[in-house]
Amino acid sequence: MELKVNQDNCLGCGVCVIACPVNAAISPENAGGNGAKTEEVIMMVENGFIKLFSTDKCEECGTCQMFCPVNAIWLE
Ligand code: SF4
Ligand code: SF4
């Protein structure tokens, strides 16, 4: 499966970024809502939209998809 995003639908809320357990392990400041500080994370919000970075680290758990309120991130 592959991680996909649709920036047109994204609200920039950052919920997926915080909910992702892999992101939390790579960039603990995520958990405080401060946003990732490194592009080593799978994805982060940049300029108000979700952007993918190190997608090879995705473990396909589906948590981001489950939490996104507008289905702007999903596994395909
Ligand atoms: S599927 Fe899981 S590991 Fe992959 S980006 Fe979403 S929350 Fe993170
Ligand atoms: S993809 Fe969904 S959960 Fe993630 S920042 Fe965009 S709207 Fe929020």
Automatic annotation (TrEMBL):
Report if keyword Electron transport is assigned. Answer: no
Please give the InterPro entries that the UniProt record associates with this protein.
4Fe4S_Fe-S-bd, 4Fe4S_Fe_S_CS, PSI_iron-sulfur_center
Q: What Enzyme Commission number(s) does the record list for this chain?
A: 1.6.5.11
Which SUPFAM superfamilies is this protein grouped with? 4Fe-4S ferredoxins (SSF54862)
Q: What Pfam families does the record point to? A: Fer4_8 (PF13183)
Q: Which PROSITE patterns match?
A: 4FE4S_FER_1, 4FE4S_FER_2
- Domain named 4Fe-4S ferredoxin-type is located at 1-31, 48-76
Listed A to Z, the keywords are: 4Fe-4S, Iron, Iron-sulfur, Metal-binding, Oxidoreductase
The organism's place on the tree of life at top rank = Archaea
Uppermost EC category:
oxidoreductase
**What would you give as a GO molecular function for this chain, any one?**
oxidoreductase activity
* Coiled-coil stretches: none
Q: Which Gene3D superfamilies match?
A: 3.30.70.20
Can you say what this protein is called? Answer: NAD(P)H-quinone oxidoreductase subunit I
Which taxonomic lineage does the organism of this UniProt entry have? Answer: Archaea, Methanobacteriati, Methanobacteriota, Methanomada group, Methanobacteria
